[in-house]
Amino acid sequence: MLRTPLWLRQGAFALLCLGALGLEPAQAQRQATNERPTDFLSADFHKGRRELLRQQMPAGSVAVLFASPVRNRANDVSYIYHQHPDLYYLTGYTEPDAVLVLFKEPQNLGGQAGITEALYVQPRNAGREMWTGRRLGKDGAKQQLGLQYTADNTEFAAAPITWSNFGQVLMLTMPADAANDPRNPADLHDLVASFRQKANLPADFNPAVGEAHKMIQRYGTANATELRPYLTNLASAQPQLATDAYVQAYLKAESDADRQKVVTSRPVSRFDATTLDELLSQMREVKTPEELKLLRQAVRISAVGQQEVMKATKPDMGEMEIQGLHEYVYKKYGAEFEGYPSIVGAGNNACVLHYETNDKPRIGNELLLMDCGAEYHGYTADVTRTIPPSGKFSPAQREIYELVLAAQEASFKECKPGAEFQAPHKAAQAVITEGLKRLGIIKTDAEVRRYFPHGTSHYLGLDVHDRGTYGPLRAGNVITVEPGIYIPEGSPCDKKWWNIGVRIEDDILITPSGYDNLSKEAPRTVADIEAMMAKSSALDDFKLPNLKN
């Protein structure tokens, strides 16, 4: 990559010559031109999401959402910018230093009447755009994204929004780690600071307090036996909860009647960091047809990646090389990113749940776990397959693999509308518990957590662990089903099981009548995996020069 010239990075000379352009490290912004894919979510989609959210906001309220921070990787190099998923969901805007304001009732803003939405964006700047890519600017945001009112972010501090007029100010947890660039008067740090000052947000405002208050409101009487110890543990780690009068009054209440009195005496605050979170979780957990189109593409790309890597994998390959093959397939099919750091672990590395180092130089004949997902236009897949690099499972590997496969099949049967979210996990855990006991790996049910320590499902979408309520499954939910067994070296069982880690993960759409396995193109059964690995690969004849001296 081109490095910003020294004379642009150093002090007074740069300020004198370029009028304090304040060039920051390249952020790989998408070009605001027609030379890009045409299957992104439409402006109408994002407009519909904004309007649906606004309809559900309380009367007299205003909502404010900030962009994600630019994050430094090293020295003057930033990580590729990734927009806050909620802001992207509501606007389609992919650039930093932005803030979206939604009004429940129409407002007068900037001389315009009837305004219900305002997006403040980074202004056009020819000098910066030469290095970091073209910006939409306020006119581009209005034309291409269809926002009702747009303005430069430099106008946000003086925006004619009288925050005190609103009965409720809805927000998400605001970024606390945004760097303050003295050359940029409207970076994210300054936008947040302006909001705090103009809205008169208390300096000690803590979203965790509001969340605790809401939990007391919702569960304070019917679920006191579970809520009280939970809040006690939470308060031990959160000083503000330990001193909050409402939380402490609830914890000190001795009877249901006393607790009910506390529940009904919740203190009122204009600032609300829980309602917006809940509304967005409800919206994002049910995918629209437009979203499902992108999710299906992300999952299919990832499933084909698993197929191609199965055909190409050999025992003398390294974990990083195999990671590269997955990610090459993603790029080949137009997926911009990985949805999360690829997990490619052989042998004992497969027993590390979020193993990301991927630096074992030779995988050998130990089982290889590959948890990889393409991100296509913001939506991410999450597909895991476990394969034998030799092309054939050993007897011990096969027994563990087929136990996990049986657990996954049991989970699939629970994937239907109305089932509790934990139903797939409970089904998988029951199968794995009985199977491990049968194999002599554990003796009691409680021991299963040693070898199956994680849940089986999470929502999938703009985030790999996507927003959702975790209530009963609904048509339009996309969830993972990913049971696993991990037996690291040194485990208290027969050594023949050591260094076996197996996870099988598929991406499941809940339909009105059941489910659809979106990742079914990736082989799952022992027979199908071994058959796929026996096929020739397009990469078999791809040879690079030997760099060793």
Automatic annotation (TrEMBL):
CDD domains: Prolidase (cd01087). Keywords: Aminopeptidase, Hydrolase, Manganese, Metal-binding, Metalloprotease, Protease, Signal. InterPro entries: Aminopep_P_N, Creatin/AminoP/Spt16_N, Creatinase/aminopeptidase-like, Pept_M24, Peptidase_M24B_aminopep-P_CS, X-Pro_dipept-like. Residues 41-181 form the Aminopeptidase P N-terminal domain. GO terms for biological process: proteolysis. Coiled coil: none annotated. One of its GO terms (molecular function) is manganese ion binding. It catalyses: Release of any N-terminal amino acid, including proline, that is linked to proline, even from a dipeptide or tripeptide. It is an enzyme of class 3 (hydrolase). Its EC number is 3.4.11.9. Its cofactor is Mn(2+). Residues 1-28 form the signal peptide. SMART domains: AMP_N (SM01011). PANTHER family: XAA-PRO AMINOPEPTIDASE 3. Belongs to the peptidase M24B family. This is Xaa-Pro aminopeptidase. It comes from Hymenobacter oligotrophus.
